[in-house]
Every structure is written in C-alpha cells, then in structure tokens.
Design brief:
With about 110 residues, this protein is an alpha+beta fold. The chain folds into two domains: about 45 residues, no CATH class; about 70 residues, D-Maltodextrin-Binding Protein, domain 2, CATH 3.40.190.10. It has five helices and two strands; from the N terminus they run H-E-E-H-H-H-H. Helix 2 crosses helix 5. It starts with 9 loop residues before the first helix and ends in a 5-residue tail after the last helix.
C-alpha cells in the first residue's frame, strides 16, 4: 500500500500529550520507512501490559521479572524492544497504578522507591 506518514505540529503534539498523558512527543528517524528521507514529528505511546487486579501478586511479580530478565529474547524478534527499559515502563503509566506484583519487582530492582 502506498502511504505517507505526516508530521504533527508542535501544538498538536502538545495537545495530544496534555489530553492523553500516555502519549509523548516522538521522532521517527529518517529512513525508518521506505521513501521517508526526513524525520517525522509525531506522538508515541508506551507499550503496556494490562493485568486485572484480581490476578495473584506472585504471578504478576514472576511475569514482570521474566519479561525484564529475558528482554534480549524479545529484542531478537521485535527491534522496538531495544527501546524498552524498566525505567520507561514505570514512567509511561499515565498515573494508572501498578499491580502490586509489578510494583514489588520494580522496587526490588530500584526503579521506584
């Protein structure tokens, strides 16, 4: 499909970030896509795993731990995973509380107090 990705204005980006706090200003580097010689200003969204609060704390702790301790495996299949970090994971929650199991893991590794 022939398409073109358009840049957003600074004011549009500011509005989207203010209105929807899970967005952040993001630049798609030149040549990320075919026929895209220039940088594109847009918004990004953090990758999120949503888990119901009824899921056992230990289960969520182990899931969170497995994800971060095996990130290199994910990066082999998904290049975007090279941009993932525990620090950005807790920064991109838009004030939605962490599950207690995930919170325990992030405290354990020193990402949150």
């Amino acid at each position: 499909m022939d398409s073109k990705v358009l840049s957003f204005s600074d004011s549009a980006i500011d509005h989207l970030v203010e209105e929807y706090p899970w967005n952040f200003a993001y630049t798609i580097e030149p040549n990320t896509y075919d026929k895209q010689p220039e940088a594109i200003q847009t918004v990004g969204q953090y990758s999120t795993i949503v888990i119901d609060e009824s899921v056992n704390e230990e289960t969520v702790y182990q899931l969170t731990k497995e994800l971060w301790e095996n990130l290199n495996s994910l990066q082999k299949s998904f290049s975007i995973a090279k941009q993932f970090s525990p620090e950005s994971a807790v920064a991109g929650t838009a004030d939605i509380p962490l599950h207690p199991g995930a919170e325990r893991y992030y405290r354990e590794i020193g990402v949150i107090d």
